[in-house]
Amino acid sequence: MKTMKSKIAVALMAAGLSVSAAAADITVAYDADPVSLDPHEQLSGGTLQLSHMVFDPLVRFTQEMDFEPRLATSWERIDNETVRFNLREGVTFHSGNAFTADDVVWTFDRLKSSPDFKGIFTPIVDIKKVDEHTVDVVTDGTYPLVENVMTYVFPMDSKFYSGETEDGRDKSELKKNGSTYASTHLSGTGPYVVDEREQGVVVEFDRNENYWDKDSEGNVDNITLRPIKEDATRVAALLSGDVDMIAPVSPNDYRRIERADELQLVTMPGTRVITFQMNQSVVDEFKDPRVRQAVAYAVNNEGIAQKIMKGAATPASQQSPVGYAGYNPDLEPRYDLAKAKKLMEEAGYPDGFSITMIAPNNRYVNDEKIAQAVAAMMAKIGIKVDLQTMPKAQYWPEFDKCEAGMQMIGWHPDTEDSANFTEFLTMTRDADTGKGQYNCGHYSNSEVDKLVMEANSETDLEKRSAMLQKVEKILYDEAAFLPLHWQDPSWAAKNNVNIEPIVNGMNFPYFGDLVVE
């Protein structure tokens, strides 16, 4: 690991004063790098990891899932439809522009136009400027998850992103999977600025010298992010000292990390569900719930969790993990090959049929191996699968087309709430509201839609939980999708890289607070 002393540290040492921790440079190897620098282009883990490095949210979650003030210092409910947020003063963007309420309002307006993010913000009617450092969040009726949603407001520099480029293009343009000003230029309030980026090769982050959070003990001046797709290669790079931290760690490599005295492994129970969607718009057979149920009975997700994930995952029968409002304890994994074959016969497909399947090969832990296992299991009931796997950068544009018969998707709920799973993955697709944005199964059930909308305005937590548990039961009975498991997030680093305090179950490490000893 390279180490260096900041100018301040050098000056203090020259004056004979002690310094608690020298600044450090580290190299981090992820399985992939962010697909864009635009925080609103794609709702994905990579984008949110980047956002926490170069922007700041109004509010963020702690490891204990409490709310921590960031660019909002405090908030209070004014009435049933209004929550007032007081904004931090004296904060500047990387450009030097001052952060004000205007930037929050501008960012909200842009989020509402994002195909990926607008679904999260459907309950938010408006964000109104009260004064330079105060905004009112106005909801459509009483909405119990305002703070949760505000964790996804990373204010952008409205002056920096306004106007036209030299070639006459709108700097605020938002285009999915496209080349825009915002996809290649950044001005946030976060702890790091992007100094260099070569897609698929390297991203260099330098410490923001004017960062507002002076209480943070973080001492990392430079982070080099190198995407390394192969699990074993990432671990080898850490073992050899070429990198200082890696994520994720394949369960196959846990022992290698644990045997190395100079390394540490950190894992947490996960809430990201890994699933396959069965596309009813492409495969007519999937319109029959008996066929979808047959697939659910044919896939041994407990076996996948044990053998492929090496126990670093919990088999899933629903979207909501234990502890979430919608978790339904009556629903269990249902592997039964004989029943699967019987359902195929009842549906009129005793000899099966053929489908296409796509999955990433560097987005989720062991994603390619999982896809191969699912395809092999489906073959046992006569469903012949033409599987294609690809890197994350190529996968998401293909996923968005919704053209494959089955498509893998993992989902961590953006609001840390059960309703979010359904809003994006299984509610009826609606381009105007953003609901069902990632529902490439084209599953649609009006009762599910109605229950989720009612739950999102219900403040009685017991009633709300009952509604969301009913949603899970409907999705289970109709085999709306194929649940596999909840994936445990994992990280490994050299012992002097104190990662445990900065990682969390959302898998958005707070690098600004990272201390290297």
From TrEMBL:
Highest rank taxon of the organism: Bacteria
Biased composition (Polar residues): 177-187
Signal peptide: 1-23
Key word Cell membrane present: no
Residue ranges constituting the Solute-binding protein family domain according to the UniProt record: 67-426
Pfam families (UniProt xref): SBP_bac_5
Keyword terms: Signal, Transport
Biased composition (Basic and acidic residues): 166-176
InterPro entries xref list: Peptide/Ni-bd, SBP_5, SBP_5_dom
Disordered: region residues: 164-189
Annotated family: Belongs to the bacterial solute-binding protein 5 family.
Family matches, as PANTHER family: OLIGOPEPTIDE-BINDING PROTEIN APPA, PERIPLASMIC BINDING COMPONENT OF ABC TRANSPORTER
The protein's name in its UniProt record: Nickel/dipeptide/oligopeptide ABC transporter substrate-binding protein
